[in-house]
């Protein structure tokens, strides 16, 4: 045989693949080709150096995309988070409309390697995960999550099985968050406990799906989202109606799931959905209520009004849903439903915009929300809802050590919550924030009283139930805490890890250590449960597991101080704090 044909050697190897791409690159190039090219070239040089520092290799740069290979999932994900940090740092010197932001996807598996690069399905999966990732986020496959879940102190939100372009089978995916504390408060699905169908409760039950925002800019969706949240809030005040929590309803914002299927997933009889079109001083709202058993629309309405009528429209929609689901309403409940409208409609707009940020639970988003709530209060100093919302942002700041003035954060939160309940004693939010402040000031009777007032005003608020349960557990009433947490989980099927942490704490107080372990191993963010798991294994005498958990905790929380933790614990009973300290010391803390 003649000729000198070159044979390419292909080998298989296990590796973690990261693919990152610039968001809106074509638009940026269209605006300023030279500037964008120069900025990206400089940024890619920084990223290549960071990749090498994380023991990775940039295999290819394709236009605005980076393909990198790592031996371990740990290094790949750490680089993915670092990539976003470097990009944000670089953006500080650029106008906002010229920011270079990335999406990133990471997958781990066998890949094909030759002298031209890396290939195969597992490379494609990383690229497709990048395509569905949110800007500034890293999306990882379940194979990556299983490798890093106990090693890295990041937050993880389970996104469920994702259909990826040109990938035959759905890929279970997670979103990585650099601030794990906030991720523990965010709504999330759980792979181990997914129930296709939950039976509806014995009373009329409804889920309000996020209203679609028609026309205008996508950034205008805050108004449709805010309207949806307020309708959920209004409905939640009726004790004879079972209402799915806002966080679980909003899981269906980006899906096209039929309402009957959504109802089966959430375990409710009725589903409300609608659309909003806002133009200048006018608003057009369409709403329908669907009976999931029959698939029939049992009520529908279209409103074409001045935007000043928004509160009247909310009340009319609430009345119609309540009437259609045949809920019996007492006069006291009807009075409680009436919300105090702000004197200035712009103040309401600022509050709705703030809501867009507060549920993301990051330091920066919490700060953005606080700024918007402060603007609302500046427009209307008697707006109770804005005052309660500011108190909430300060409570979150204190809870996760984000506050600049941590020593006085709780005191300031207290004053805003007190002002909120003075201005509007029918708003549950103010009493809920008051309960949290009182608990961590170790004023237990005041905390329990405030939470009970809040739940009397809004019995379907799942987060309030969870916080109330935590206050009960810290006050020694653990059985009541467990019952309230179980109800919170049913109202909010995609409940955050925080509910499991609260439940684990109640079981630990009762010395039901197996129940603690069973509960906390369901957390999507295992590093946050390691302390209680270590104490529980130690109390059971399983010292190998206890020491293993303690070692992992030290790696993820190098600054943890047992003495400081014991001082902050808001237990009414000293024996509860000593019981936990005993378990931690046995585990090697």
TrEMBL record:
Record's keyword annotation contains Magnesium: no
Guanylate cyclase domain boundaries: 16-130
Cross-referenced SMART domains: TPR
Domain of life: Bacteria
InterPro entries: A/G_cyclase, Adenylyl/Guanylyl_Cyclase_3/4, Nucleotide_cyclase, TPR-like_helical_dom_sf, TPR_rpt
Keywords: TPR repeat
TPR repeats: 428-461
Cited PANTHER family: ADENYLATE CYCLASE, TERMINAL-DIFFERENTIATION SPECIFIC-RELATED (PTHR43081), PH-SENSITIVE ADENYLATE CYCLASE RV1264 (PTHR43081:SF19)
Name assigned to this protein: Adenylate/guanylate cyclase domain-containing protein
Organism (species): Leisingera caerulea (Phaeobacter caeruleus)
